[in-house]
Amino acid sequence: MSPETSPAPSEEREKAYRKLYTSKLLRETMTLHILSTKTASQEGRLVWVTSGFPVEIPVAFNTVAAYPEQYGAIVGSEKCGPLLCGFAEELGFSQELCSYARSSIGSVQQPEQSPLTGLPKPQALLACNNICGTVLPWYEAVSEMTGAPVYLVDTPPLEGEQPPHHLAYVKSNLNGLIEFMSQTFNHEYDEKQLLQVAKLSNDAVNLWTKALEACKNKPSPLNCADRFISMAPIVSLRGTQQAINFYETFFAEVEERVKQGIGAIREERVRLLWDNIPPWFTIYDFFNTLAKQGVVFPADSYTHAWSAAIPRGEIIESIAKVYSNVYLNKGLSAKIDKMCSLIKDYDLDGFVLFSVRSCKRYSIGQMVTKEEITRRTGVPGVIIEGDMVDSQQYNEAQAKTRIEALIEMIV
Amino acid sequence: MSDTLSYDTLVAERHQYLQPLIAAEDHIIGYIYPHTPLELFFAHQLIPTLLWAEPKIPGAYEASLQTFCCAYSRNLFSQRAKNQLTNLTAIVFPGGTCDSLQNLGDVWQARFPEDTLLRLTYPVAQDEAALTYLTEELQNLSNYIEVTLGHKFSVEKYNEAVALIAEFRAATQFITAARLIKPECLSYTKYTKLIRQFLTVPGPQALQLIEQTAIEVQSELRQEQLIPSVEALRYGLLQNTFDDLTIPLSKQGPRIMVIGGMIDPEGIAVLFENAKTSADIESVEIVMDLLSFTYRTVFTSSPSLQGNPFQELAQSILSAPAEPTQEGLPNRLQFLRHVFDQFKIDGLIICEQSFCDPDQFEVPDMLKLAEKKKIFTVRLPLDPEFSDQARIEGRLQSFLETLTARR
């Protein structure tokens, strides 16, 4: 028996869920990353990027990327979302705006009251609107506060296949990014370097995807919280050797669990799909409470967003293709297709759609989605409401009642 | 004290404007986003009409849209669910402008598959690549209309439409510039009504009303030898080069400016007039707004008749000023700085439509700028139905009273 699957400590035996041993490595990896962002900021080579940004390009320019959305997740899990959002609201930002944006702006305004004293000061702000339209005004607002320039990779929403003029437009934006990075960081573009980064990115994405796909097994080796926490390196270290190092160990643990028939939870009775960002402020409580009832989430629509590798071909065109075709950029029908195929491929009994008030692009349309998925797959679903960072917008009792009703329908 | 104006009455008037078209069984296409290429639809023998929020519509969106979807989207959806948009041949939805409208189109298609929906997706950038992209999108939209509705692109109709919209813009630009110099030459209420009437039924009749008003304004200002200043200002606003002009502004009391997005300017005029009446203050006037359906529409450059029509239309759309759905907050703040300085703005009304991301994100920076310039501000949280009319008017009344007292 390998150390990864050695018997759990006695205090763990009673718990309904199993902790990943890789979580220690995850903490170390992310701590090193946070330290590297601080150093990079001091050295004048830190960029803030959105989660769907083609980060391979800034990494090839020897800059380090920090992710305000990931920072939002930290803010949420530290349960200080309302405090930081409040700082932004004091500046005049409406409470109706995205809580990732508000908490990020709040942390820039009051770093000393923010977890990790906020993200280090950026030298550039890189946004790609393939995930939502909020990222540009959010980064423009941060730019007004920090003085860092904004570069937008504009990927207009697609309907169906990507037409040539769309691809040409996105390519032009990426070429503009290269020019922007060269000028801002006084660093020459090196295509060989970009190809190398893209390869590292793909290697990490492939390992991550294999870990996700391992959840087709019964019992599922990973639950939702495992994936949401373990996705940190695929978001923020994509294109680096550190990400590969982490996911090699992570996937080995997942594989071992599959081989041993060890599930993420002790007794798997109901398999559900999760849709959207999680409520970070209660992520463990939420999923572990359900684990006690035998509910596992072998798949979700969110963490699968990082499972597309850069295809072969001319590198800029390949990057343009993969980052334009993020399913959030492809309309409701693409999202429904994706979720239906997850339900089928992972043999799921039902689904939970988290209606996140902050995230209009992800959430508006979920009522149609719910009906359509049930019509196409025959499995029931439920919508719960709340927010990913701002716990004031979340009603725990209401969410639990709805999910319990769903479980009753299934069991 | 005069009677209180009602927003409902204005909306009822818009139904009247549309009646002749409906009676003649014209093909009407509804649009939502301000920078919709009206000329393109005319070229396909479709009459574009700007849709509006119905104040009395019962909510019928709850089974399809969440409450955090923008209020304008929810109202339009409710109208459709209650079968109140039955006279439309098609609706054109914008893509890439905001997440609510983007997803609204998808939900609409799923709920009302019998409707003909057209989508025009806009780039956020404004460079050469964006121009090429938008040109192709417009060409594709034109092809789609031909295939779906069977309406061919007519060069003759296109040319007529370009002339019509250009004349509307020229006359309205003149009035806008004239009001900035001498706001008492035309009330904001009348100004917004003229524009709204044209956008509801863009045609020679509505244009004639605007041109007639422009002639009357011109005649009044000519006596004061203000025409060269008005023309210089109009040109300066179009080119965004008005910051070094010497503008002879009228001395009349507090000068108010309105900023916001897809808020109904006629509705704002009603609220403002009622607040003025309640406060019993006559001298105060809205001298300018930067709303989507007035300034941002009117000061968009018209397409040239030379060259490829789709490219010219794309160029026109990308020239829209102060548009927060496009990139460039620093430019918009610089523009606003010049506006505050040049037009001696005393008070600023900031309209925030419920759950409208593009506009709500800019408010704090605008507030900061106004504070720096010692401009008195009020924020109005609004829904497109102006359902909380009395409370908002009370807020405006306090604003006007305090502003006047301070002055």
Descriptive keywords:
A: 411 residues; alpha/beta; four-stranded parallel beta sheet; globular; disordered N terminus; B: 407 residues; Rossmann fold; 8 strands; 54% helix; 11% strand
> Major sheet of chain A: order of its strands?
2-1-3-4
Instruction: Work out the number of β strands of chain B.
Output: 8
Would you report the number of β strands of chain A? 8
Q: Which word captures the global form of chain A?
A: globular
Spans of chain B with pLDDT under 50 lasting ≥5 residues? none
Derived from helix and strand composition plus strand pairing, the structural class of chain A reads: alpha/beta
Gap between N and C termini of chain A:
35 Å
Strand share of the residues of chain A?
5-15%
How much helicity do the residues of chain A have?
Answer: 40-55%
**Alpha-beta classification of chain B:** alpha/beta
Could you give the order of the helices and strands of chain A? HHEHEHHHEHEHHHHHEHEHHEHHEH
Beta-strand percent range of chain B: 5-15%
Distance between the termini of chain B: 24 Å
Write structural notes for this entry.
The complex is a heterodimer of chains A (411) and B (407). With 411 residues, chain A is of the alpha/beta class. Chain A has one domain (14-410). Helices cover 53% and strands 10% of the residues of chain A. Chain A has 18 helices and 8 strands. Chain A has helices at residues 10-13, 22-43, 56-60, 68-77, 81-91, 99-109, 135-146, 164-185, 191-213, 224-230, 232-236, 241-260, 283-292, 315-324, 331-345, 360-363, 366-377, 396-410; strands at 46-49, 64-66, 124-128, 150-153, 270-275, 295-300, 350-356, 381-386. Chain A has a 4-stranded parallel sheet, with helices on both faces. In chain A, helix 3 links the parallel strand 1 (46-49) and strand 2 (64-66). In chain A, helix 5 (81-91) crosses helix 6. Chain B is an alpha/beta fold. Chain B has a domain at 7-152: Rossmann fold (3-Layer(aba) Sandwich). Chain B is built from 15 helices and 8 strands. The mean pLDDT of chain B is 95. Classes of the chains: A alpha/beta (411), B alpha/beta (407).
